[in-house]
Amino acid sequence: MIDLAQLRVVSGAGGNGASGFRREKYVPQGGPDGGDGGRGGDVIVEADEGLTTLAHFRHSKLYKAESGRPGEGGQRHGANGKPLLLKVPVGTEIKVIDSDLVWDLDRAGARVIVAKGGEGGRGNARFSNSVRQTPNFAERGLPGEGMDLLLELKLLADVGLVGLPNAGKSTLLRAVSRAMPDVADFPFTTLEPVLGVVDLGYDSFVMADLPGLIEGAAEGAGLGHQFLRHIERTRVLVHLLDAGSEDAKADYDIVRNELLSYADSMADKPEIIALNKIDLPDAREKAEELRKSFPGREVFLISGATSEGVRPLVQTLQRLLQETAPEKQPAEIVKELPVLRPRPRDRIEVEQDGDIFIVRGERAEEAALKLGEGGYEALDELQERLRRMGLEKAMRRAGARPGDTLKVGNVELEWQG
Predict the structure, then answer these.
(1) Is residue 63 within 8 Å of residue 149, measured between CB atoms?
(2) What's the CATH code, domain 159-323?
(3) Per-residue CA distances from 307 to 167, 171, 183, 239, 279 (Å)
(4) Tens digit of pLDDT for each residue in 198-222?
(5) Can you give the residue ranges of every domain in the chain?
(6) Cα(62)–Cα(43) distance, rounded to whole angstroms?
(7) Segment 274-312, tens digit of pLDDT
(8) Which of 38, 110, 145, 267 has the most crowded Cβ, counting Cβ within 10 A?
(9) Domain formed by 349-414, architecture
(10) CATH says 1-153 is which class?
């Protein structure tokens, strides 16, 4: 099972605006007619209930959306870039590396735009007015966003089986469902989670056989975090103990401590204790005594091998699941995940670096990207936009004088004051 994937996504760049003029017979002074560039395609991630692993991301680590097409003369706008749709299994959590952004696709159809396409540049027809009737410049399109993502699949199971290796989790899952996990007489037979549907005739639920814990798993020992993440989404835990163990209570404490070390939320999950392997005479005797070590707790004596005591266990699990059932949403409602990004502010800041004054601000730097290579008219437009953002006050606060050099993005200008 592939339940982790790391990849880089890049949205499409915006197309450049066109700078052109009408050339018609008998119209010697045709006006500007450059069209706008198209918007770059977004990168979208969507939860698909038909997928069960992240294996399809193994062969490629870079995913790019289509860029917008440039504008053309005749005020023809460039086509928008096609968005890139990446599909993941339901239950996938998306983390932006080196960021606090996290999205949880916990139901089929949930989707999120992880990288927005770059804005297309405007053509010179957009800058024509009564004062500037023949603008000879256009904007460049903005580049797309690049993000490094970590995709982490967390199984959506109702019941999770936990316990030390060889406690009998796989045997129990075989006994209550049609799942066929490997069973053997050595630890760590199960190396990846296995799901099974438990059918009671009148209702059903999903049970997950989660690979065995060892001491130190919360810090990564043994299979460690490879499976602990899957326990987070289960609603009820069955803590399976080998009743024939030399110290089953100590076995319980080891696993319980690892669960709580991994996440405090584990303490709030309903937990049932099942003492397994009572088909063995010594284990049955120990189980009766061991039950007293858990006063006030629901403790079941079972045998996964012979199915003794299993029916009452699954009936109790069904009752607990009904008591902890999440609120159901109408089927037609698909969860929409907002993309939370700070909006660029108009306010700019200036700091001196030697003889140059550096202008900082997202909107200012965007304007420099769009207009920095469009010739002297475009630079005039850039200075005017910076002025409206408050450049004059910011430059004076920084101690600049008329004629000093300012730099915004990769563009250097002489400040007129």
Answers:
(1) no
(2) 3.40.50.300
(3) 15, 10, 15, 17, 9
(4) 888 878 888 888 765 554 433 443 3
(5) 1-153, 159-323, 349-414
(6) 12
(7) 999 999 988 888 888 888 889 888 899 999 889 999 999
(8) 38
(9) 2-Layer Sandwich (3.30)
(10) mainly beta
